Amino acid sequence: MSLKIAIGGKGGVGKTTVTALLARCLAAGEKNRVIAIDADPVANLAAGLGIPEDQPITPIAELRDLIAERTGAEPGKMGGFFTLNPKVDDIPERFSKEKDGVKLLVMGTVQSGGSGCICPESTILKALMTHLVLYREEVVLMDMEAGVEHLGRATSGSVDALVVVVNPGARSRHAAHKIRQLGQDIGIKKILILGNRVRGPEDEQLIRESLPGFEILGFIPEHDEIVASDRNGQRPFDDTIDKAPKELFSIAESLTNLSSQ
Questions:
Q1: Phi and psi (nearest 5°) for 233?
Q2: Chain segment 161-181, per-residue pLDDT in tens
Q3: CATH label of the domain that carries residue 40
Q4: What are residue 5's DSSP bridge partners?
Q5: Is residue 140 classed exposed, middle or buried when 0-12, 13-18 and 19+ CB atoms within 10 A define those classes?
Q6: How far, in Å, CA of 251 to CA of 141, rounded?
Q7: Mean pLDDT across the chain
Q8: Cβ(4)–Cβ(154) under 8 Å?
Q9: Which of 74, 117, 128, 190 has the highest Cβ tally under 10 A?
Q10: What does the pLDDT read at residue 223?
């Protein structure tokens, strides 16, 4: 199954935990091939997926030898000549770590020149994201920064949805409006709200009423194990994802239905 989902949200809403849980649900339920992309500068998706700390993952943007080989230019150098269409199709298999059917790729960030710089590192990241979104027949979940900085117009049209994670807090709900606008500006057509850490019908109603005009994907209830695991830097439901809240599986099923629309 081919399904491409970008996941954004204000820091602290549980976006990375949600991404990891959905990736595990999608890999377990339908035996889908799932790639999880950590595109947040504060990379911690590995812990949410249960990948041990003694198996460090070098971000793609820091693979200096690979970048130089594929682009023909030394990373960190501005200007000059280098290829804008480097080979990237082998990167997911070579530089990912896998756990319970989910492959994790850590993108990393460009350290100089700003987010819009034209440099070997950014060229590799953009080419890899384009490959993952346009040419992979897999489920690809992208844990983005607060916005959608790693996506561009070349790939946004093939993203099935941008899922904005919010909690009942006012700041996260306000941020949803900005994130939706960023997504619309680059051409993402379907933008969904996922309410996280809700403690009952009152929280659900608050999110619905404060975000009129948004399509609601679903709600994940506050759960003691998720809270404790997040605090300890571990993955919740470590022995089996089957113990996760039923609402999570309903959300995963709703996402799979997008691939046929």
A1: 70, 30
A2: 999 999 999 999 999 999 999
A3: 3.40.50.300
A4: 141, 161
A5: buried
A6: 14
A7: 89
A8: no
A9: 128
A10: 95
Per-residue pLDDT, 73: 86
Which residues constitute the domain of residue 126? 3-258
DSSP-derived secondary structure letter, 196: E
pLDDT for the residue 78 = 58
Q: Where are the beta strands (DSSP E) in the chain?
A: 3-8, 34-38, 97-99, 102-106, 139-143, 161-166, 191-198, 215-221
How do 3-8 and 161-166 pair as beta strands?
Answer: parallel
Q: Is the pTM of this model over 0.85?
A: yes
Sign of CA dihedral 119, 125, 128, 130: negative
Unique residue bearing structure tokens 């949600």: 18
Q: How many domains does the chain divide into?
A: 1
Q: Which amino acid is at 243?
A: K
Sheet order of strands, 102-106 included:
97-99, 102-106, 34-38, 139-143, 3-8, 161-166, 191-198, 215-221
Task: Say how far apart CA 120 and CA 122 lie, in whole Å.
Answer: 6
- What is the Cα–Cα distance from 141 to 19, expressed in whole angstroms? 7
The residues, any chain, with a CB within 8 Å of residue 16's CB and separated by 6 or more, are 38, 40, 44, 45, 48, 143
DSSP three-state, residue 85:
coil
